[in-house]
Amino acid sequence: MVICIDEVSEIPIYKQIRNQIVLGISDGRLQPGEQLPTVRALAEEIGINSMTVNKAYALLKQEGYIVTDRRNGARIRNEFDQGKYLSQASLDNLQQIISEANIRGFSKEEFSNYVKSIFRRQIYV
Amino acid sequence: MVICIDEVSEIPIYKQIRNQIVLGISDGRLQPGEQLPTVRALAEEIGINSMTVNKAYALLKQEGYIVTDRRNGARIRNEFDQGKYLSQASLDNLQQIISEANIRGFSKEEFSNYVKSIFRRQIYV
Amino acid sequence: MVICIDEVSEIPIYKQIRNQIVLGISDGRLQPGEQLPTVRALAEEIGINSMTVNKAYALLKQEGYIVTDRRNGARIRNEFDQGKYLSQASLDNLQQIISEANIRGFSKEEFSNYVKSIFRRQIYV
Amino acid sequence: MVICIDEVSEIPIYKQIRNQIVLGISDGRLQPGEQLPTVRALAEEIGINSMTVNKAYALLKQEGYIVTDRRNGARIRNEFDQGKYLSQASLDNLQQIISEANIRGFSKEEFSNYVKSIFRRQIYV
DNA sequence: GTGGTCTAGACCACC
DNA sequence: GTGGTCTAGACCACG
Asked: Which residues of D15-46 are buried (b: 16+ CB within 10 A; e: fewer)?
């Protein structure tokens, strides 16, 4: 999977990496148990410092998306908690987005359909 | 409308102010055309630096939520573009939230219903 | 409060800092709401890199012991969750320690009294 | 006795082996004088590098839990020093755990009872 | 080889 | 001024 960094974005690089890997897990480009590139390899590929990749991996590990193993490097977790909850931060974000949508003229049904149109299990096999 | 600052939050204060005003517009606590407190008044009321309020107002103006004129200070915009679109930043955020939801076991329908349950036009008259 | 680093210890410096601050909170040398030295100040005082202190503070923040505030730097949290639980890591550690005690001849009562003798709310006023 | 390795754990494998053997001695699954599998056999059984098992055995020997002789391989020590003391490392760990417990609302008596509830001589004969 | 830690020094957003 | 982020390069424990 290719990681793309937007250097002018105000989102820190380590978070961009984290976001794209979460995205990859969600849409199936990254399969459970799949091997991630090593910290050094990914750093070199993107052209950034390995500490930054390290921080991204540490965050993903802390959030439970990946596991790190001294032998094999980092891997996508095998099983995820299917608890159907969102983190508080995501919930707050969602509330803000809904406010924006409301102001921009979305009705409840329109926005719900809009969300549905984005939500797709895209399995890349 | 009362603005509440969470000093502990990772979200910068100026963005908290912006978020709460957008929320207020969305749920009707702030009506189109309504006058906002002056930068100095709001800063004093909250107990923060007026530069911070200034920054929040500048952001709101740039995003098209408020208008300022030299005589009357800041006011909520009279009419909003009902174009039914989201800013690119919100769209990116939404995509991330949906990814998280997908990984946590939400189905498309479950999540869309979840969103619907949060989306409410709360008109405070 | 004085932070003392053992340079030859196998415990990473950032964790030594974290440990000593938790200890300080527990025995009252650090009061709820109390100001911590800035990242730079503590780094200089100890004679280490500020990134290392940064990492210690980030860990303490993540564990809920301190809060950071863009205006005032880092402070001890005001209120702690009194849920009477231990982290899984501490529980595992405790089990190991108890095994060692058992092998070294402690009876259940002796060890429990031993623990009691260490457990003291030492309020330094 | 079965040794189980958690590949995801942050605890190095050699220490996991050491911990489980100490646990086994404590609860009686490993009897004084009992023969341990050879380094090579255990490594093969667990499916890890024999250097890792070697390191675990070296640590156990250094801590006085096992003895090795050239002919018979490794054996659990026949008699343990019943001096009712803990290693400095364990003492430090215990102090940290008690701090955490104190902060989380445990009283001295509650925690000592909690410890007592974990402390059990489980003799597997 | 891997991830984890640390350094010295820099820049940034926020307030 | 603060904490947060990033870099370039180093060393270490682990396996």
From this structure: ebbbbbbbbbbbeebbeeebebbebeebbeeb
The answer to whether the CB of C112 falls within 8 A of the CB of D117 is no
CB crowding C32-56: b at 16 or more within 10 Å, else e: eebebbebeebbeebebeeebbebb
Phi, psi of D124 (to 5 degrees): -95, 105
Q: Which pLDDT value is given to residue B120?
A: 77
Give the SS3 label for residue C2.
coil
pTM for the model:
0.90
Question: Residue B124: its pLDDT value, please?
Answer: 53
DSSP string over B68-92: EETTTEEEE-SS--------HHHHH
Residues of B in contact with C71 (CB under 8 A): 7
Which residues fall within 8 angstroms of residue D29, CB to CB, at 6 or more apart? D1, D124
**8 Å CB contact of D8 and A67:** yes
Option in B8, B12, B13 nearest C67 (CB): B8
| Through-space separation of residue C22 CA and nucleotide E7 C1' in angstroms | 25
Q: How many Å apart are CA B54 and CA B36, to the nearest integer?
A: 12
Contact D73, D35 (CB under 8 A): yes
pLDDT of C122: 58
Q: Is the confidence at residue A121, as pLDDT, over 90?
A: no
**Residue A25 structure tokens:** 């897990």
Residues with Cβ within 8 Å of D91's Cβ and at least 6 positions away in sequence, in order, are none
